[in-house]
Amino acid sequence: MDYKLLKEKLFDISILLMFMLPLFQSKLRLTCIALFFLSVILCYTKQKVEFNPKRIIINGSIYLIIALSIIYSDNSEYALKKLETMSSLFVFPIIFSILPSSKIQRLYENRNRYMFVYVIAIVVLNLGFFIYHFGHYKSTLLTHFVEVTRIAQGPYNIHPIYLSMHIGVAIIFTFFLLKKASKQKTIILLLADIILIAFLWLLLKKGPIIGLGIAFFVFVFLQKNRQLWIMFFSFLLISIITILCVPKLKFKFAELSEIENINTGELTSTNIRFSIYHSAIKVFKKGPILGQGIGDYRDELIKAYEEDSKVLFEGEYNSHNQYLSFLISLGLIGFIVFIFILSYNFIIALKYKNQELILLLVFYSFVMSFENILEREDGVLFFSFFVGVFSLFSYNKESRSLLERNKKVIDN
């Protein structure tokens, strides 16, 4: 086989594997990332490396701030552990900073193929979990599915909120795939959506559900299509009726209207988060500029729990809010850097009509209000990869636009 063709095949396979990552265990995921990195390096076998530092400066800057916070962290062991877990925040910007423009164009042209692979992977993942546990739980599986996904799958254990996030992203991808799908593919995608929505309600995590609803609203707004508005409000009406008619769903969402501190109110997930935020703000006030450092912020938070609530102290909860977590660990400096990353990518996505990135940022930004998704592999890995990949399309258009403007200036 021709060497050039072999390199192209390796690149395509590595990208497909990256979009299939949820199906793999942690060690195999590292192998896939290494293969992807290798395929990018091989692009430069006889040619000069195209290095774009802007991609590292924008998307990788938060990791540099995290690393620098070790300087004023006492708990270096925990700090290094967090740096390892969150390394995707820097690894992917490095990889994407040397990705040739020709490969970015290839990614762009084949993005629907890659999104379809991810959708099918998430459908297989959920059905696989359900079938695997059906033999043990059978009639009670619908009740215990949330718990068994977290504790009864060995190396495939996954927190329900991260599984829900995978589902949310997969459904977002189907929005775009359905726009240009053939009749056969439309049937497959609609069937996939039905399965994914069923599992999303089964897992019943409010953050991803509401985040997906907001992303759907933004998608419909961007399309300016009357039929989509009718579809959106129909889904909204059906969802509200379903929540009101199903006692478990009604109870879960009713928490949002009765928010109290757990010392005086019921022990619900919403009240726990509300109480956590109260303690987290106290810790933030101790070091508002630089924070407590990536190594010490959790210890300081647990100390606050010891003063505020026995339940929180014994549970050793994290901040359950990524923005608050950065405020505690990195202070206002780290928080502002992170908001800049999200804002810049969102603005550039709007400018170049990068709708996939817009919806991903809307979804992830909302879910981060209720979960520290960048502090677990199942969150940070996929956030970093997806934002990295889809932001490339904006940056590439920006670069071409800049080159065209410079050429006009020179010509004049």
Provide structural commentary.
With 412 residues, this protein is mainly alpha-helical. The chain folds into 3 domains: 1-51; 58-95 and 292-412, no CATH class; 111-257, no CATH class. 76% of the residues lie in helices and 0% in strands. It has 20 helices and no strands. It has helices at 3-19, 26-41, 53-59, 61-68, 76-85, 88-97, 101-109, 111-137, 141-151, 160-177, 183-203, 206-223, 226-245, 247-254, 269-286, 297-308, 310-315, 322-351, 355-367, 377-411. Helix 3 (53-59) packs antiparallel against helix 6 and helix 13 (226-245) crosses helix 14 (247-254). It is globular. 38% of the residues are buried. The mean pLDDT is 89.
List the defining traits of the structure above.
412 residues; mainly alpha; 20 helices; globular
- Overall mean confidence score, pLDDT: 89
Order of helices and strands: HHHHHHHHHHHHHHHHHHHH
Structural class: mainly alpha
Distance between the termini: 48 Å
Helix content: over 70%
General form? globular
Q: What is the tally of helical segments? A: 20
Summarize the main sheet.
none
Compute the CA-based radius of gyration: 22 Å
How many structurally independent domains? 3
Beta-strand portion reads under 5%
Number of strands: 0
The low-pLDDT segments are none
Write a short abstract of this structure:
The protein is mostly helical and 412 residues long. It has 20 helices and no strands. The chain has helices spanning 3-19, 26-41, 53-59, 61-68, 76-85, 88-97, 101-109, 111-137, 141-151, 160-177, 183-203, 206-223, 226-245, 247-254, 269-286, 297-308, 310-315, 322-351, 355-367, 377-411.
